[in-house]
Design goal:
With 106 residues, this protein is an alpha+beta fold. It has five helices and five strands; from the N terminus they run ββββαααααβ. It has one domain: 5' to 3' exonuclease, C-terminal subdomain (DNA polymerase, domain 1), CATH 1.10.150. The protein starts with a strand and ends with a strand.
Length: 106
């Protein structure tokens, strides 16, 4: 189990047991780098709708990459004003780190 810890607020914001890969295989969450999970989404390299995406994620209390990868596509679509373009940008940014939405299960 990997604990997602927010350094800025000093709180544990989640725990992850396993990771679902794109091909459907499961892997142990311990293989993830903790510094990636603890990275604030506000520091990611957004190209499309940067301010809007950061604000919408913040409104939903999604502050860290570790929190973001636990959200499914359907959960992301339920965020007000968060559509396919925003999801595509989130997935593009996560892909640069070898991550994706919906890849972790608690």
């Amino acid at each position: 189990m990997v604990v997602i810890y927010c350094q800025s607020c000093g709180a544990i914001v989640g725990m992850v047991n396993s990771i679902k890969l794109a091909d459907g295989r499961q892997m142990n969450a311990n293989s993830l780098k903790p510094e990636l999970l603890a990275k604030p989404v506000s520091e990611l390299e957004w190209k499309v709708q940067a301010t809007r995406i950061k604000n919408m994620l913040s409104t939903e209390s999604i502050e860290l990459v570790g929190q973001l990868i636990t959200k499914s596509h359907a959960e992301m679509l339920r965020i007000p004003n968060f559509g396919e373009t925003s999801i595509a940008e989130v997935r593009r940014v996560l892909k640069t780190m070898g991550l994706d939405i919906g890849m972790c299960t608690e």
